[in-house]
């Protein structure tokens, strides 16, 4: 995108046939982008409803959409506080993951010795499935909330660490030379060169970590149970399944999905706001 | 800041390179016995094939590398304000606006923007981009980005500006334009430039001294003076004088290539 010297946009009085066709396609695509997924959703719910009613499926096998909706309203006083609890655990784990991941990444890039010594263990922590570690954490960490938090943190912090580490190292070499020539201090280099270079990578890691923090929180609730966070969404779901209350189970499941979508949308928005002025990934192609 | 430029031979010394050598990994000789006196107001081109040590010379002058032997001395000692650098790529910070990019050399010296705003705007004005101070680099064309890069090198009024094939990646038309503009700029601020290029035409058009270098090992084989007066313009490009200098430089370069082969 180049600014015209006089700043005046070029006006096309008439579109030729090809351009008109392209504009038409664009308009159709714009509408389809929203209508098609919505249509799929409506049809799926309809099929679900018909399958349950015509097949007379008992509600403890598969509750119909109306029952789930009804439970969602009826049990809102249980579900809403549960969502807050799970949400709090997720957000707290994500925040700590950002602090820990970025902090370690900065330490790693400032000291090669630190990276060589500790990076392998960060990888081991990441590749060991958290479900396998969670029961141990429950045994050794006395405070159940801290144990749950630790579970979610372990899952969420690695993508931030690894992405930020790569990002901090990805500064343009010539720019780095320029900083050397102008006698930049270590802090100036980090603040004005490495950090902005790392930002797109960090935000990519944040998007992944947001989803993982929720997964970690759900796993923690499953394994550690209500002792940890009180009755979160995942604990509610588990408890509902014990009581064959499948309407509530589905309602809780839907809310967990909604939380995941909201977190992803939020992270994408943060990423866009931080990058849209200058980074290639946020630019619209003309 | 524009001081009168003295004629060649009467200029004050800026930098003295004597018997400078650089060897990599103990056996690859990148630069052999380079001697060069840079004087105030010189426009020196380092002309040569790739591998002739042009870029190594620049890295040595900018202290990004230390010579294996020999010495590089600044007249009156080295200070922080000695150098401005322009690379082959514009090398701008994509996240920073044009004015902030030009502010960088000052910023790294701890000078707040308010204090040096006039210098930044003056440098941008010199390259004709004062209207684009709020733009981001991606909004500019390749030639305009290069101008920002030049403004950044100029902004501290350094004693010496190093340019490492700055226009090599640009198209011919933009390149000619920027060559003209660079000379015009030099008429206004009497800067001292070392300009690395592998274009004979560019080196003749711009410089008053051409240092021809050969490869394997990288070394200086000839120094030419281009005595044509400044300002030089399009008329100079088509003059017989220009053609004669180009032939001289070409022959020297040919010699350099012949020796290397």
Low-confidence stretches of chain B: none
Q: Compute the gyration radius of chain A: what is it?
A: 25 Å
Domain module tally of chain A: 2
Individual helix count of chain B? 8
CATH class of the largest domain in chain A: Mainly Alpha
- Average pLDDT level of chain A: 88
The CATH superfamily of one domain in chain B appears as P-loop containing nucleotide triphosphate hydrolases
- Structural class per helix/strand content of chain A? mainly alpha
Query: What letter string, H or E per element, gives the SSE order of chain A?
Result: HHHHHHHHHHH
- What's the gyration radius of chain B in Å? 18 Å
Q: Structural class from helices and strands of chain B?
A: alpha/beta
In spatial order, strands of the major sheet of chain B run 5-6-7-3-8-9
Distance between the termini of chain B: 46 Å
CATH class of one domain in chain B: Alpha Beta
- Name the chain pair with the biggest interface and residue counts per chain: A-B, 23 and 26 residues
Describe the structure.
With 286 residues, chain A is mainly alpha-helical. Chain A has two domains: 56 residues, no CATH class; 218 residues, MetI-like (MetI-like fold). Chain A contains eleven helices and no strands. In chain A, α2 packs across α11. The radius of gyration of chain A is 25 Å and the shape is flat. Chain A starts with 16 loop residues before the first helix and ends in an 11-residue tail after the last helix. The N terminus of chain A is likely disordered. With 261 residues, chain B is an alpha/beta fold. Chain B has a domain of 143 residues: P-loop containing nucleotide triphosphate hydrolases (Rossmann fold), CATH 3.40.50. In chain B, 36% of the residues lie in helices and 24% in strands. In chain B, α5 links the parallel β6 and β7. Classes of the chains: A mainly alpha (286), B alpha/beta (261).
């Amino acid at each position: 995108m180049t600014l015209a010297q006089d700043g005046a946009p070029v006006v096309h009085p008439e579109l030729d046939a090809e351009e008109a066709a392209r504009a038409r396609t664009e308009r159709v695509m714009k509408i389809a982008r929203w209508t098609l997924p919505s249509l799929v959703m409506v049809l799926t719910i309809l099929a679900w409803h018909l399958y349950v009613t015509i097949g007379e499926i008992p509600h403890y096998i598969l509750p119909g959409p109306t029952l789930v909706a009804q439970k969602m309203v009826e049990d809102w006083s249980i579900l809403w506080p549960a969502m807050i609890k799970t949400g709090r655990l997720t957000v707290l784990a994500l925040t700590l993951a950002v602090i820990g991941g970025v902090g370690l990444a900065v330490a790693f890039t400032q000291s090669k010795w630190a990276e060589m010594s500790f990076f392998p263990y960060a990888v081991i922590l990441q590749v060991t499935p958290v479900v396998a570690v969670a029961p141990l954490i429950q045994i050794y960490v006395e405070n159940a909330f801290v144990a749950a938090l630790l579970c979610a943190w372990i899952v969420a912090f690695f993508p931030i660490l690894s992405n930020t580490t790569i990002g901090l190292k990805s500064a343009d070499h010539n720019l780095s030379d320029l900083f050397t020539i102008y006698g930049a201090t270590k802090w100036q280099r980090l603040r004005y060169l490495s950090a902005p270079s790392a930002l797109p990578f960090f935000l990519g890691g944040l998007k992944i970590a947001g989803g993982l923090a929720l997964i970690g929180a759900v796993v923690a609730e499953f394994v550690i149970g209500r002792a940890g966070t009180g009755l979160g969404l995942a604990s509610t779901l588990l408890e509902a399944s014990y009581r064959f209350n499948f309407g509530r189970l589905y309602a809780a499941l839907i809310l967990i999905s909604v939380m995941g979508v909201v977190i992803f949308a939020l992270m994408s928005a943060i990423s866009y706001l931080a990058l849209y002025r200058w980074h290639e990934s946020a630019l619209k192609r003309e | 800041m524009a001081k009168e430029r003295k004629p060649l031979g009467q200029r004050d010394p800026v930098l003295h390179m004597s018997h400078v050598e650089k060897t990599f990994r103990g056996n690859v000789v990148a630069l052999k016995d380079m001697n060069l006196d840079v004087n105030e107001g010189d426009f020196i081109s380092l002309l040569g094939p790739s591998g002739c040590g042009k870029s190594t010379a620049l890295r040595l002058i900018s202290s990004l590398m230390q010579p294996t032997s020999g010495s590089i001395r600044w007249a009156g000692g080295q200070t922080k304000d000695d150098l401005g650098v322009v690379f082959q790529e514009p090398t701008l910070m994509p996240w920073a606006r044009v004015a902030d990019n030009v502010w960088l050399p000052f910023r790294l010296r701890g000078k707040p923007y308010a204090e040096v705003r006039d210098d930044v705007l003056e440098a941008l004005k010199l390259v004709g981009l004062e209207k684009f101070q709020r733009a981001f680099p991606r909004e500019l064309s390749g030639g305009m980005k290069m101008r920002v890069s030049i403004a950044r090198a100029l902004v501290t009024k350094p004693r010496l500006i190093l340019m490492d094939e700055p226009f090599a990646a640009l198209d011919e038309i933009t390149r000619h334009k920027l060559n003209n503009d660079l000379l015009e700029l030099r008429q206004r601020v009497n800067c001292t430039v070392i300009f690395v290029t592998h274009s004979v035409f560019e080196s003749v058009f711009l410089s008053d001294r051409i240092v021809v270098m050969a490869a394997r090992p990288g070394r200086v084989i000839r120094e030419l003076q281009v005595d044509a007066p400044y300002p030089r313009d399009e008329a100079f490009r088509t003059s017989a004088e220009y053609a004669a200098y180009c032939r001289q430089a070409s022959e020297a370069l040919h010699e350099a290539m012949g020796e290397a082969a």
